[in-house]
Amino acid sequence: MRRVGRNRHPPSLKNSAQPVGEVVVSNTTVITFGTFDVLHVGHVRVLNRAAELGDRLIVGVSSDALNFSKKGRNPVFSQDERLELVGNLKSVDQVFVEESLDLKRDYITEHAADVLVMGDDWAGKFDFCSDLCKVVYLPRTPSISTTALIEHIATTRGA
Ligand code: C2G
């Protein structure tokens, strides 16, 4: 499926955009992954920055089962709720369920991604995909995390 990307043309790609009538169909696809539980500014900022690296942003949202295997607890928001939240963000063009950490190369190929973006807490972990696409690690937003938010809510509830 080719989608008309939003009008985000990084200068380097301006010339590769193919005008079709009035609509510009461009072709840089960015992919990223995450749990995005208890959505916060750290999530929103990494998605906005990822979107700026291309014309469409596709996000793999971890399934509840994958989240449990990664973090040893169930997410606060179910995968359907997290898909809906992330899918409704302005910077996001498409969401899908990430079933496993080991399917990165399949997802990159399936979505014809040109750029894989992750926060630098995953630095180096996906370099093995660099023959398929560009791999970019972006600085995390300091001093905010879902785990800290959950602890904060738990300790202040009823305070
Ligand atoms: N993030 C960030 N700043 C924060 C917290 C998170 O930039 N303060 C970024 C992370 O680096 C990641 C994305 O937001 O790129 C999603 O973070 P999580 O929901 O914690 O996802 P994670 O459990 O790291 O899952 O296949 C990879 C995994 O799905 C990533």
TrEMBL record:
By its UniProt entry, which Pfam families does this protein fall under? Answer: CTP_transf_like (PF01467)
Instruction: Tell me the keywords, alphabetical order.
Output: Nucleotidyltransferase, Transferase
Question: Domain Cytidyltransferase-like: where?
Answer: 31-150
Molecular function in Gene Ontology: nucleotidyltransferase activity
Question: What is the protein name for this chain?
Answer: Adenylyltransferase/cytidyltransferase family protein
